[in-house]
Specification:
Largest sheet of chain B: 7 strands, mixed
Strand content of chain B: 15-25%
Shape of chain B: globular
Radius of gyration of chain A: 12 Å
Number of helices of chain B: 8
Number of strands of chain A: 5
Oligomer: heterodimer
Strand order of the largest sheet of chain A: 1-5-4-3-2
Strand order of the largest sheet of chain B: 7-4-3-2-1-10-11
Order of helices and strands of chain B: EHEHEEHHEEHEHEHEEHE
Helix content of chain A: 40-55%
Distance between the termini of chain B: 18 Å
Largest interface: A-B, 13 and 13 residues
Largest sheet of chain A: 5 strands, mixed
Chain lengths: ~110, ~250
Amino acid sequence: MKVSEIVEKLDLKIFAGSNNLDREISGGYVSDLLSDVMGFSGEGNVWITLQTHKNVMAIASLKEHAAVIVVKGFQPDEETIKHANEEGIPLLGSHEATFELTGKVFNMIKS
Amino acid sequence: MQSFKADLHTHTVLSPCGSLEMSPGRIIEKAVKEGIDLLGITDHNSTLMCRVIAEVAAEQNISILPGAEINTKEEVHCLTFFQDWKKLETFQQYLDQHLIHIPNDPNRFGYQVVVDRNEQILQEVDSLLIASLDQSLDDVAEVVHSLGGIFIPAHVDRPTNSITSQLGFIPENLKADALEISKFTTLNEIKKLQPNVDAFSIIQSSDAHFIDNIGDISCCFHMESPDFEEVKMALACKNGRKVTLL
């Protein structure tokens, strides 16, 4: 599944990386501890988090994530948006909380 | 230049997780026993115990660096220190404004009391002090520096509530005056894991929550006198001042 499909179906906000929505999603990872994400997430994952710090994009780039979704309507830091554009990784936003959003993304990937 | 033994991370009876024995008199008694010249008072998200401890400490020729251990919205713990009572008070107002209000349950988290030098309770703080601020690490660093204060991410080697556990690694262009490592690691060990710590002065402190732990580990400041401005210079390695680990 492509990032553009979840953006469309879940009505996600696009903070950055709008030119890269054709990236392929292999699975997902959910954690707010960046040390954990660095250790255990995988390539092509869509990462769901409430963190907004610029290190989020450094790790998404390192782990070659398909996209990052920031939950609960939080606004990513300016630097985070800048990094996302530089790295060409979609930085997305949802007003939903992690549990609800993850359930929906999981079901979409599974089907 | 002289050498001063410093433990810059100490909790008091005010921190919910701090022992009720951490009263001004007993903290200073132990600091004297440990030969500490400079003691940082850093309760969770509160500065309210600094002044009384400084008064007791002055009688024993110990200098206090007043401050607090802040929990940022990323849940990164950071030490902050200020030059005088006025700046400390301004920072306390910032904390009152930005600490996320969760009522403390003393049976679960512990008592949060402000005491005088005779261990009489003056005030019980209602808001849970181990909660986080609604402010980011960068926000807190900016406010501390705007007040001329010192900003030091705490126990950067720890697997919880450290800049490395919460943010993965030391962020580029971090506006910190130093980094603190815990007693559970060594400088060599942390350098292997986080090569960019080399850009910072390093302190090591006890993070004491109990009397016995004060001075468990300390660092040595090489400077002219044990006061805020000298510490600031030492952390910046200016004018021949510096800080070394033991």
